[in-house]
Write a structure and sequence with these properties.
alpha/beta; Rossmann fold
């Protein structure tokens, strides 16, 4: 009686999962803005700024961006450090002056400086340009 060999094949990760793993390894978690799960993190300086932060978030979401408002009760520095650790491509900080004048503080991942007093319309334009998928 002839023996017939059988091969058992089991892939724990599919091709899509392997591709995503290669992307994560290649970018070291710092995805380009168009690929990042959260494109913009908005940090209110105090609880009283959360309403303005929510309105900024709504405007950015309407422009097609993926936004998250950091409403934890940590200090502003801790919130910024957390967003930088998560490698969020853009960071917006809003405070009293920003709420009064419809501006934001804007910082991009990998840059050491932030820009204060950026008009919301200009910030929206810059962020949508940053998040545009390459063609």
């Amino acid at each position: 009686m002839a023996e017939r060999p059988y091969m058992i094949h089991c892939a724990k990760a599919g091709s899509i999962e392997r591709f995503v793993a290669v992307l994560v390894e290649h970018y070291a978690g710092a995805f380009p803005a168009w690929l990042a799960p959260i494109q913009v993190a908005i940090i209110p300086v105090a609880d009283r700024h959360e309403e303005y932060a929510d309105s900024v978030a709504q405007r950015l979401e309407d422009a097609g961006l993926r936004v998250e408002v950091e409403k934890s009760h940590e200090t502003v520095g801790e919130k910024i450090r957390e967003a930088l650790t998560r490698k969020v491509p853009a960071l917006i900080v809003v405070g009293d002056d920003d709420a009064a004048s419809s501006t934001v503080g804007l910082r991009f991942y990998g840059e050491d400086r932030d820009t204060r007093g950026v008009p919301l319309i200009e910030a929206t334009t810059r962020l949508t340009e940053m998040a545009r998928r390459p063609t």
